[in-house]
Amino acid sequence: MNSLTALRLLPWLSAEGKPCFLVPGEEGGIVSRLADEKEARQLADGLDVLRSARRVLDDPLTPNVEVRYAALRLTECLADVLRVAESRGRRLLSTAEDGAGDLDAESDSVSVPEAGP
Prior knowledge:
Elements: H1 3-6, E1 8-13, E2 19-22, H2 30-58, H3 64-98
Antiparallel strand pairs: 1-2
Helix pairs in contact: 2-3
């Protein structure tokens, strides 16, 4: 198993602004479930922001400040979604290298202190 793909990238950064990783284990733990819930919220938020941004951009009379705000929120959401995609991609690679396995099977062991969701 490749050590880079064996770690789960968590959907938040440490207090120092660095990525946090979860070391896989035998059973899904509380940190894994917390990360799953945070990812689900991030994806849902991204969809909501996308819908709002489309409305803003569809109106040619929308003030520049609203267009800028929509762009900033879209950028935030895109960063979140890319982190979720990277995390899930790493887990898929890890599972493929192992030959089989449960994508949700992780422990509560965290390699970098979490900053929280």
